């Protein structure tokens, strides 16, 4: 085993400089009620239906069940094994062997009934390591299932926000189209009166046609989003037609929780799953190392054996035995070293995956925070533009009332105001989507502690810096992951 070790180590949150990008703001971590906070009972009912009927989530749940079965199988290997066997064979014994007359040259029934015992004396804790590996794989599957739940929930919520935006935009387009139709009528009247030219009339009709195309595009987008939601629910497209028209959520104050990088260890299901995969890979290394040592199996049997049935149940037919079976690998052509190298390589890969999960998590949070900051600036600027358009519309209405402006100018300002409201609506929808994205990047309410996905043993982040798999123990855990 000499020369076979790893130099990989799991990164700690302290390895990442994030204080400037992700400052402490005294906010709370998301909890399970975030869906209701955004979309009320309507969105909560949709997400509940998706969690119950989505095939991808059902597949993830099946993987959890399979992993738990592997835990049971691994646990069984460390327990005594008991089995029973019975055989009866009708055969002719040769006259030229060890069987004397009357058996030699005759047909005789050979009967044997046995109760067999075996127990693997697991001196090197091979079965214990196999059990820990299976347990870690099971915990990883549970965490991956939680991550799948969050992905599905946020996908439903984001599609719901998109549907609300599309319906609201369609409503504004309908209002604009009505005003454009009115404006077209006014233009035709002015052309008939010689106040405008046919060019003005045709330009007005172009705007009407454009709005009708826009309305058709919004109807298409609404239909596609409803289809998307139906698929997320695991239902046919007709289910999407039954979803009530949603409304965009009210604005909310968003603040980051304190000690964000450290807190992500126990709040992100994907990070927890990757950490458990590291645990499993380290246990697999221990299993591979035990293959270099002697294996001792204790076997025993008791039963009955006889030729013919006459004396089968007599005391003289009793047979029994007990003894050890020892296997010691001496020369296996390097197969065991190759197996150990493979397990170490898998461990290195698991560590790299864990480190990437932590890096990606911080990246996702930072991206959402930066986008929310930009969206806040856009929101303020757009609100100012909408307010200016509204004031311009009211001024035009006042001028029309006193005869200094015509209805054509009033309708034009109304259309311009609705255009600004459309832009403002887009900024609101984007902020709502980014809010969901931030909730997702912060774990969406997942807590490894409450989910039972943190080992009881203590885990020191610093201890993994110089982790070398040269011994059969010293396995890091997730104990401080949620601190």
From TrEMBL:
Q: What is its main location?
A: membrane
Q: Name one GO cellular component term.
A: plasma membrane
Residue stretches in coiled coil: 201-228
Family matches, as InterPro entries: MdtP/NodT-like, OMP_efflux
Q: What Gene Ontology terms describe what this protein does at the molecular function level? A: efflux transmembrane transporter activity
Membrane topology of this protein: Lipid-anchor
The record's subcellular locations are: Cell membrane; Membrane
Q: Does the keyword NAD apply?
A: no
> Which keywords fit this entry according to its UniProt record?
Coiled coil, Lipoprotein, Membrane, Palmitate, Signal, Transmembrane, Transmembrane beta strand
Q: Which residues lie within the region annotated Disordered?
A: 460-483
Name the family the entry cites: Belongs to the outer membrane factor (OMF) (TC 1.B.17) family.
Q: Please give the NCBIfam families that the UniProt record associates with this protein.
A: outer_NodT
This chain belongs to the protein called NodT family efflux transporter outer membrane factor (OMF) lipoprotein
Give the species: Glaciimonas immobilis
């Amino acid at each position: 085993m000499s020369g076979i070790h790893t130099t990989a180590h799991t990164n700690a949150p302290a390895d990442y400089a994030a204080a400037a990008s992700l400052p402490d703001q005294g906010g709370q971590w998301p909890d399970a009620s975030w869906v209701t906070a955004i979309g009320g009972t309507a969105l909560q009912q949709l997400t509940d239906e998706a969690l119950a009927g989505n095939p991808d989530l059902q597949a993830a749940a099946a993987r959890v069940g399979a992993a738990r079965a592997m835990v049971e199988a691994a646990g069984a290997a460390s327990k005594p094994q008991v089995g029973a066997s019975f055989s009866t064979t009708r055969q002719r014994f040769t006259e030229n062997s060890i069987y004397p007359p009357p058996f030699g040259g005759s047909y005789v029934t050979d009967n044997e009934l046995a109760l067999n015992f075996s127990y693997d004396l697991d001196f090197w804790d091979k079965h214990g390591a196999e059990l820990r590996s299976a347990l870690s794989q099971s915990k990883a599957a549970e965490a991956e299932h939680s991550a799948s739940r969050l992905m599905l929930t946020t996908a439903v919520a984001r599609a719901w926000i998109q549907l609300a935006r599309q319906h609201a935009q369609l409503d504004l387009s309908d209002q604009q189209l009505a005003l454009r139709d009115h404006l077209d009528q006014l233009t035709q009247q002015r052309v008939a009166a010689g106040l405008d030219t046919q060019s003005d009339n045709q330009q007005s009709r172009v705007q009407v046609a454009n709005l009708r195309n826009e309305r058709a595009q919004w109807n298409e987008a609404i239909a596609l989003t409803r289809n998307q939601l139906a698929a997320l629910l695991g239902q046919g497209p007709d289910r999407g037609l039954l979803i009530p028209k949603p409304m965009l959520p009210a604005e909310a104050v968003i603040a980051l929780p304190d000690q964000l990088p450290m807190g992500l260890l126990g709040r992100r299901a994907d990070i927890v799953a990757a950490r458990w995969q590291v645990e499993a890979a380290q246990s697999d290394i221990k299993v591979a190392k035990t293959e270099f040592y002697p294996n001792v199996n204790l076997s025993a049997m008791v039963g009955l054996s006889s030729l013919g049935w006459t004396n089968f149940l007599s005391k003289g037919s009793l047979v029994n035995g007990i003894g050890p079976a020892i296997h010691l690998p001496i020369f296996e052509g390097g197969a065991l070293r190759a197996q150990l190298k493979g397990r170490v390589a898998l461990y290195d890969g698991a560590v790299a995956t864990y480190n990437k999960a932590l890096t990606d998590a911080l990246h996702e949070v930072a991206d959402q925070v930066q986008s929310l900051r930009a969206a806040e600036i856009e929101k303020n600027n757009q609100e100012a533009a909408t307010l200016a358009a509204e004031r311009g519309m009211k001024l035009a209405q006042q001028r029309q009332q006193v005869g200094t402006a015509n209805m054509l100018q009033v309708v034009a300002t109304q259309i311009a105001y609705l255009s600004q409201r459309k832009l403002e609506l887009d900024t609101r929808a984007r902020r709502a989507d980014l809010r969901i994205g931030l909730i997702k990047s912060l774990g969406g309410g997942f807590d490894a502690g409450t989910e039972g996905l943190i080992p009881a043993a203590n885990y020191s982040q610093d201890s993994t810096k110089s982790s070398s798999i040269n011994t059969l123990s010293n396995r890091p855990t997730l104990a401080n992951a949620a601190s």
